[in-house]
Design a protein that fits this description.
Elements: E1 4-10, H1 17-25, E2 32-37, H2 44-52, E3 58-62, H3 69-81, E4 88-91, H4 102-111, E5 116-120, E6 128-129, H5 133-150, E7 162-165, H6 166-171, H7 182-194, E8 199-203, E9 206-207, H8 218-235
Parallel strand pairs: 1-2, 1-4, 2-3, 5-8, 6-9
Antiparallel strand pairs: 4-7, 5-7
Helix pairs in contact: 5-8, 7-8
Length: about 240
């Protein structure tokens, strides 16, 4: 049994899922894993089920249909909060764009005082591998845009590699998180900061996937662009009281 749970949402990740699971379980610190699969037609969930016979700390939640990244993580957060042993709860992609070795560094940041540790591509320059320049610029300036509108001092506002202390997810009203795509990552950081939690960035190197297909789209970016303004306006009418 571990105090740390890594949540990995999946949709058509058969090329990556076994390798990422084996890699996480090979780390020097023991993490449990929760896969949230949105009905992958490529058999991702079946691969996970087979691995569960080998790894008792591998958990699987299956959902019907592609319901969105944000709702997958919310599902995972609630699953984790229902199990008191999990004190550190992680978000991570299945495609190795997030290096599993960095899970240990993110956890250490939270053990040493952070409430949320963010694996940051931009806290020390630009640390992105295999992305076209157009996407690097879009991501970098998206974070600048978020800082301008929200006034939060996070260099990588759209980052999706994170560790939360349990208290953060128990405090944030998850049913009020509005966004399901790219903007979900921004909203979670913004909300944690509004509640007074300490969000720290941990430098990582982000490597674009080499297997499988990216789920990014212009619709997701559009949601984020408009969503940041909506989120800021909503915050003017919301109380952020910690019990």
């Amino acid at each position: 049994m571990s105090d740390s749970l890594v949540i990995i949402p999946t949709y058509n990740e058969k090329e990556n899922i076994e390798r990422i699971i084996r890699k996480v379980f090979s780390l020097s610190y023991f993490f449990e894993i929760l896969i949230i699969d949105d009905g992958s037609p490529d058999g991702t969930a079946e691969i996970v089920k087979n691995l569960q016979q080998e790894y008792p700390a591998l958990h699987l939640e299956q959902r019907t249909g592609k319901l969105g990244l944000g709702t997958a993580y919310i599902h995972g957060f609630r699953w984790a909060l229902a199990r008191p042993q999990f004190q550190y709860i992680f978000e991570m992609d299945a495609d190795f764009s997030h290096n599993p070795d960095d899970l240990i560094r993110l956890r250490e940041a939270c053990v040493n005082g952070a409430d949320v540790a963010v694996g940051s591509r931009y806290v020390r320059g630009v640390n992105v591998v295999n992305w076209p320049m157009s996407r690097v610029l879009m991501s970098y300036f998206a974070s600048m845009y978020v800082r301008l509108i929200t006034r939060i001092n996070i260099q990588d506002a759209t980052a999706g590699f994170k560790c939360y202390r349990r208290e953060v997810l128990a405090t944030i009203p998850l049913d009020k998180i509005k966004f399901v795509g790219y903007a979900f990552q921004i909203e979670m950081k913004f909300t944690a900061i509004k509640y007074g939690f300490n969000v720290e960035e941990v430098p990582i190197i982000f490597t674009d996937r080499t297997e499988g297909t990216s789920k990014m789209s212009t619709r997701i970016f559009r949601e984020a662009f408009i969503g940041v303004i909506q989120m800021k306006i909503w915050s003017w009418f919301r109380k952020y009281d910690r019990v």
